[in-house]
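## tool: complex_structure
## caller: assistant
## args:
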Amino acid sequence: MSLRSRFLSVFRSAQVEQELEAELQAHVEMRAADSIDRGMSPTEARHDAMRRFGNMTRAKEDARSEDLLVWLESLWQDLRYGARGLRKSPGFALVASFTLAIGIGANVAIFSIVNSVLLRPVAYPHPEQLVMLWSTGTQTEKFGSSMADIKEWRARNHVFSAIGSFDYSALTLSAPGQEPERAHGAEVTANFFGVLDVKPALGRNFAAEEEDYGQRRVVLLSYGLWQRRFGGDPGIVGRTIRLNTFPYTVVGVMPRGMPFMDNRQPADLFVPLSYKPGDNMATRENHYLNVVARMKPGVTLKQAAAEMNVIGGQLAHEFPENAGMGIKIIPLEAELVGDTQKTLLVLLAAVGFVLLIACVNVANLMLARAARRQREMAVRAAIGARRARVLRQLLTESLLLSFCGAVVGVLLAFAAFSVLRNFLPDTLPRFNEIAIDVNVLLFACGAAVVTALLFGAAPALHASRSDIAHQLKETGGNVTLDRAGKRARSVLMSGELALAAVLLVCAGLTVKSLTRLLGVNPGFDTRNVITFSVPLYGAEYGSTEKAVQSHNQILAQLHSIPGVEAVAYSTDLPLGFGGGWGKLVSFPGRPAPASRADVPSTMFQLISAEYFKAIGTAVVAGRAFTDADDATGQQVAIVNQAFAHKFFGSANPVGKTVLMDAPPGLASTHLAGEPQAPVRVIVGVAADIKDDNGLSQPPLPRVFVPVGQAKGEGGFRTGLYCLRMQTDPMAALASIRAAIHEFDREVPVVNPRRLEELIGISASTQRFTALLLTLFGGVALLMAAIGAYGVISNSVAYRTREIGLRVALGASPAGVLRLVMGDAIRIALVGTAIGLLLGDIASRGLRSMLFEVRPGDPLAFGAVAVGLIATALLASYIPARRATRVDPLTALRTE
Amino acid sequence: MARNDQLLGTLDLLVLKTLQQLGAMHGYGIVLHIQRISDELLRVEEGSLYPALHRIEQQGWISSEWRTTENNRRAKYYRLTAIGRRQLAREEQKWAELVRGVAAVLRFA
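## result:
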């Protein structure tokens, strides 16, 4: 047994420790007394006595600490000693590790999201070679591409090994005796999974000829659908399933866990993207395909962008429809992250603040504990422990605490995550992949170490520096705090309040912004409205005309449900939930723009007669559609206010005419075999409805046309229904299903939800941010309150004698209260003031995330200031009250 | 520091010898005694003394008890045990051999 460990083993028992302390104290006193006898001043004598506690042990330790084994041994001792110390003060250990657990846990939870969304590479081989290609135009920054263009890109480029594309799609999966199901997925080019470099787990990828229309109907299943719907049947390949009422042959099953793009939507199955000859969708006009390309090895993004730039220029020159268009190239990984990066980084910063506050709180607790342990430290110094050694011991204790916190924190994060999952914004990419993995655990360890250094360093330095002689002179077990410690705690307390203020300011701003956002008039009335979609894909609905007839029959069925106020179907839903389409627009009688690139475009939506009544939107001028607006009558349109304002200014557009095409003479969007788009008379102006731009932005110009009049302007099969009821619309869901099944057993009712849910989903990112920031702000406030309580109660304990003396000299309880609360008020004011200044800076970073709220919103700042100061004072009031009850006799007798 | 180095390994011997000469003594008294008897040549550092005293006590060479000093202070007094006496004899012999050996080397010219 080494000298030191043997010595420590002696040192360990509390009784021996006390005895040793007494022995050393006797020694110091005797030495000092002798020195005083020889004429030294008492202070000098005491210092001299202390200085003599010498250096030989240190020299020995220096020599020994180079030995790794000894180092490990001493670390183990430190750990055991630390654990014993923590066991001896369970209150401190519990509060401290729980505080840390909340701080670290919150960080782990947020980091696990950041890790999955931002840090983990996309799960395809060589993801750095994958890019997405977009079309750009004079009016729109970035949109999908046309099949005709993609074919040109493939033929002309030298930088990509392959270019594939896909369109999100949904097909009705039906089987005899089973409820039809809407299976989501995509139509993909035959080479698509080759571009991603993913091979099916079962079966094969699509073959090139399977793109040819009507050749064969084949489908690739996702692993999930294969398991869920087909029980993981190993003989699935070659079997036939029914999609959109047609038989499809299963050619393969994709690997388990294969992500599909940003994983925002489920991908149940994939079918080849194919067009019948002359299909409208395959023209140069129909910009709707998502394009994924793989760069050849060694090709840089810059080279690829340069070449596509050239090709885009060529196409714009060669094809009139491409006038003004270009090509944009974005790395797949950046594309998938999208604009969530900022939200996540803000949350990560906020949660970092929570951890900092937790650190400050624990540092405060440690300082208080250090004050109680000064004598222990002094004894250790006296028997020859070097300062670095004492420091290490203290930091080991801190590490022990923070690792306890981290373990509990990770467990908390697990628990929190199952709750948090329900609040994740629907717009968060890759959220299915979120999990607590090795990265997250490493992060938790890192957080624990950094945390321990943050909260442990200052108290440890402070404690290890304590004046040995002074401490050994102290008698009794009185809890004291020297001046430096007291100042340190006040500074920490102010800092904590400042951090809490920053968080609260940010929380306040986002909450106010969210309320504003949810308070925005969406342009429709959500009360008692249910929406759902009815896709009609059987052979019997082969054209838009047939689909319209069928939807009209369904409409009649739905009308007969008791309690229905209005019901309508359309090709789009508010807030971009319908995926409506845009069209060029021109105005007969006005001079045509110089080139096709300058022809304006507008959103275009087919609606049945009662649409505005069903979603509760006012027709502010002219009239709504009626059943009389059919194919034979006058061709009419209703425009929204944004359209009226953009194209007619303050003039009344009712009675004016529009053409949903480029003006005659400029490349028409008209397709051979389809009727020409007619000139339409505007019969009404509808109030603006919030659209794809979201709640915070003004909607795009939009033209509404009666479903029965659609002519050469694009077709549809799926009806998006809105049903306004007198009472709760969800209660009518069974009747709705029955009505539609009566019409056709194989037609599903897809995505039934209340209209207000659309608003909720649309604001989900903001809600998520506001919710988390509020949660963090609340935790910060709570910790600040605990911190204030701790500092003030310690200050009261420190000043017990002084207070007793004052009371003895006739101070009133109110006077004592003022005395103690004075401290608290000073700390609270300083902390809050600094916090508001920092909050002002921090909130500027939030600017782009705020809606109708300025970063320096006075209401938010005022509320935070008042709330924070009130909380700090309330928390201080409890110990201050205690001070007023100090019995002067007891207080004065304590020393 | 030179003084300390001289003391390396000899502190046990000095402590045991001091206690043999004084009977029972506290730590401070041991320091003073060694210093006085050695004409201030040897100075025991407190930081080394107490660990040494505890180690020696653990080995059973000395025992301790709390007493009051002549100045009415409470202090811990140490005295030699029987084993300690035998150990002292061994240490003295070892020291004498060491001195003889070193002297022989020094005399060799």
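## assistant note: The mean pLDDT of chain A is 83. The interface with chain B takes residues 3, 6-7, 10, 19-20, 22-24, 26-27, 29-31, 33, 52-59, 382-384 of chain A (CB under 8 Å). Handing back to user.
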